[in-house]
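Internal tracking record. Fields below are filled automatically when a chain is submitted to the structure queue. Please do not edit lines marked as system-generated. If the sequence contains nonstandard residues, flag them in the REMARKS field before resubmitting.
Queue: standard
Priority: normal
Entity type: single polypeptide chain
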Amino acid sequence: MSRRALERAILVAFGVAMVAVPWLVPALLGSFWVSVIAEILIWSLLAASVNLLFGYVGLLSFGQALYFGFGMYGVGIGIAHLGLSFWPAFGLGIVASVAMALVAGIFAVRLTWHYFAIITVVFSLIFYFLFLTIKPVTGGDDGINFTLPPTFRFGQTEIGLADSTFQYFFILFCVAACFWLMHRVIQSPLGKALMAIRDNDVRASLIGLNIYRLRLVAFVMAGFLAGVSGALFAFFGRYSSASYMFYHVSGEAVVWAIVGGTGTLFGPLVGTGIFILVREVVSTQWQHHLLIVGVIAILIVIFAPKGFVGLWRGLMNRVTS
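SYSTEM-GENERATED OUTPUT FOLLOWS
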């Protein structure tokens, strides 16, 4: 069996397993782990936004938490202050994230290397402290709690995220749709152009590619992924908080993407899954579980710089060759 056929079979099996989670996991491990898997899916989108910039454009951003936070607050403010229903609040969170990414990207993508990383952190810090200050709107340190509106209403019948099974499938559908869109972008001429810029931006400019415009498009798309992630997390926790806009959240997403494998579609999902599972399993027994996270990250960077997915692909090439 070729590597492509084997990976396709694994992907199908993984898809079937994800669909079966609400029934299979409670029977084997307990219903708590369904929520953990849903959380992994949400956070993997934030890591995917880092991966889109770093793995496919060559820009390392430590500011993706800013767009994650805008997605959260778009939902929280929309429901708690504006009285919006589910879908308008969801849309407001995504639009707010994309708009913020466009504004920040206009300035940020003019820079590269550590200058780009620094300016993304600066934007994140500016709005983090701003959102702490405007407490009547954002709740400051306390954040915003809200009651979930129904997702669908058919006459007197309401369907919403209060149903844990529906919530899981809603998150799974949104995350799968975003990863599918990212796959389509990567395989498109736009994706090839982004990778050309990553490999050598000077040569890319010489063949007629508009480096600034393409980087800005990628930056906004990454903001969209982070915004969807933030909006989903707000619905998941019924809560919006400025603490999720701090740069340490971006740093975690960077680590998840690198450990999983940058420049690969599912690397962010793998890295996020590993670290959140380590957190949930070890933290109940040992409060210093972050040491394990740090050791894993260091070992992967040293011995498998392409991450777990890169390690897997190398193994598959040996087995199928």
